[in-house]
Amino acid sequence: MRNIGTAFLVEPLAVAFSQDGKSVIAGGVDKTLSIINPESGKVLRTLPRQPGLIMSLDASSDGRQVAVIYGHADHLMTLDHLTLWDVQTGTILADFQKPGITILGGTFVGDHYRFAAVSGNQLGVWSMR
Fold first, then answer.
1. Cβ(47)–Cβ(28) under 8 Å?
2. What band does 4 get if pLDDT is binned at 50, 70 and 90?
3. d(CA 72, CA 81)
4. Interatomic CA distance for residues 85 and 54, integer angstroms
5. Which residues pair with 16 in a beta bridge?
6. Nearest Cα to 70, choosing from 49, 44, 39?
7. Which of the four pLDDT bands, split at 50, 70 and 90, describes residue 1?
8. Average pLDDT over residues 103-110
9. Distances (CA, A) of 36 to 43, 56, 70, 71, 106
C-alpha cells in the first residue's frame, strides 16, 4: 500500500472504491464529493457542493452512480438525507429527506439500478429505471 496524497481532502469521513478499482469516491466535512484516480491521486471530477457533511457513500457496480448519506454539522448523528447522484453528469437521480429519521446505511442492490437503505425498522428501495 502506498499513500497517493491527501492534499485535496479536508477531513474525509467517507470513501468507496468503484468495483472496477479505477476510481475512489471520497467526501466529508468540506461537503465536497471527489472522484479520484487511485493510481495517480489526481481528482478526476468534483460533484456540485453537497447539502451536508458526507457521512457515508456507496458506488454502483458500474461506477456511474453514487449514493450519499448526509449528516448535519451541529449534530453528526442526524442522518436524514440520502441523494443518488449520476457521477458522469453531476445530476441528482433521486433525493430523499425526512427529518426525524436516521438513515443507518445503504447499498446498491445486485445491478446498478436499485438502491436499498435502512432506517430503524424501515427499509426503502429506489429504482433508477
1. no
2. low
3. 9
4. 13
5. 25
6. 49
7. very low
8. 75
9. 4, 17, 20, 22, 22
pLDDT of 2: 46
Q: Please say whether the beta carbons of 32 and 13 come within 8 A.
A: no
Residue 127 cell numbers, joined: 429504482
pLDDT of 107 higher than 50: yes
Which 3-state string (H, E, C) describes 2-18? Answer: CCCCCCCCCCEEEEEEC
* Residue 19, amino acid: Q
Is 78 in contact with 72 (CB distance < 8 Å)? yes
> Which residue has 466535512 as its cell numbers?
29
Sorted by where each starts, the structural domains of the chain and their CATH numbers stand as 12-127 (2.130.10.10)
C-alpha cell, 119: 432506517
